[in-house]
Amino acid sequence: MVVRGTLVAVLGAGTMGVGIAITVARAGYSVLLADVSWERARAGVQAADAYLSESVRRGKLDSQQRLAISARVQPSAEIAAMRDAAVVIEAIPEDLDLKAHTLRTVEAVCANDVLFHTNTSTLPVTAIAGRMRRPGNVVGTHYCNPAPLMSLVEVAPAWQTSAVALERTEDFLRSLGKEPIVLKDTPGLLTNFLLVPFENDCVRALEAGWGTVEELDLAVTTGAGFPMGVFRLLDIVGLDVHRAVSLSLYRQLRNPRFAPPPLIERMVAAGELGRKAGRGFYRYGVEGFE
Which residues 6+ apart lie within 8 Å of 269 measured at CB? Predict the structure, then answer.
């Protein structure tokens, strides 16, 4: 069991890492938000502060709650600072060698019973665990984006994952207010296997002139009952992240619906990455909010 108030390290201060850090801190845990440099880690903490401030503006939190949550999230660029973590959550780019190397480096300074969670949804958790000294402690935990808002977390045990690690992982996720579902360790798990080709189909519909961004999002929300339009979701995820996920799944599954459409390629090349860049399918202010 992971006790509230203990330290959780989140590796990667990008959109997903920040969202997970907010989620974990909101549940009462201390969070170390880590990245390869102090500047990137600090930028992640500032992004978390901006999100929480916006939550206050929208009436989702009061000021005291915001201050308490913010105080529990600290930046770091030092591996040694993670030695007291009870859970290490990896949310870095979808590269098997990078993920495995990063987790193995952190593993060297941590206690023997630390849980190692990888947020991958496209790479085999079993292959990541196979690079670790204690592979039984590794579990795939894919948070749906945006992590602070979405209740589902897909849990993918590796071939080597111990029953104890899986049980502790489910308990930890429930303590965050999440709903874990245990799935097989397969490319895309469930949500991305279903969602990524649909997102690409919507982009292709836009390319074909079937409607504007706003019209297609309205069709998805009011006609199909989605809580958020596809293009708004892509902007939150980041078009560079969507491209990487699409390519990874396409290479493994060879289904052309997973291949990123030309418009995604052009927007990524132009730096129009979505909310974090201030410009994607929609336009955003300096804090990333419309």
Answer: none
